[in-house]
Amino acid sequence: MSGAHRLGRTARIARLVVLCLGAAVMLAPFVWGLAASFKPAAEIWSGSLRLIPQTFHGWENYSAALSRAPFGRFLLNGLIVCAGILLFQLIFAIPCAYALSKHRFAGRTVIFGAVLVGLLIPVHVTAIPLYLGFARLGLLDSYAALIAPFTISVFGIFLFRQFFAAIPDDLIAAARVDGFSEWAIIWRVVVPASWPAITAFAIFSVTSHWNDLFWPFIVIQSTELAPPALGVVYFRRDESGVDFGPMMAATVIVTAPLVLAFLLAQRRFIDGITLSGVKG
Fold first, then answer.
1. Which of 9, 62, 142, 277 could form a disulfide with 249 if both were Cys (CB 3.0 to 4.6 A apart)?
2. Range 90-104 average pLDDT
3. Strand (E) positions, 108-161?
């Protein structure tokens, strides 16, 4: 075995070890939370790092979580809010990204620069003006207050613009020769070719808004409209107190749909992220 080959093999092993250690660090809180959801309170507070419970208490913890708070309603609210946000984001971001990537017009570079600047502005900066606006309109404590502020995603425009730039111009030209309108090209040619990018963006969007606590905590007062993250806060405040077993069970219930969705879509997610940087 040559020295170069041994060096390359050592580098690959080192990268694998570093990645495994990083994954272990990131997953440790989730693994501990999952294990705690099956333990009685005495084992959780014992200080032991044992993951497998000595006394299985999962049925009691999950039953308490599901009976003390309407987690079915919380999950439904999360589904409605995330689906509504994602739908409007796709409707607005895809045509904008198509125009920026496939059309030449005055001010295109300036507009794309504004998109990049928008990526730097956190949602917290606009929270107070948005709250005052929704209060004036009487839309607080409603699905509209949860969905409307996020219907336009500058990240979505940027991601799709990068992906669309890699679609051959000849394909667009051929569609125009066939008599397709620009809207038909977008929805019948570009979108079917962009499912990896759409899947990647959908995972980013749904994860962000499913876990969002900042904005719902400001605009929602009624338990009936609480999304999952806020529902866990209500559950802790009103019911569980320091009873960490049901609390961890509630957290697992809220997190499980996201994990399942990512596992089902991870291949398209990786393709979307990879291909979105092929061409600038």
1. 62
2. 93
3. none
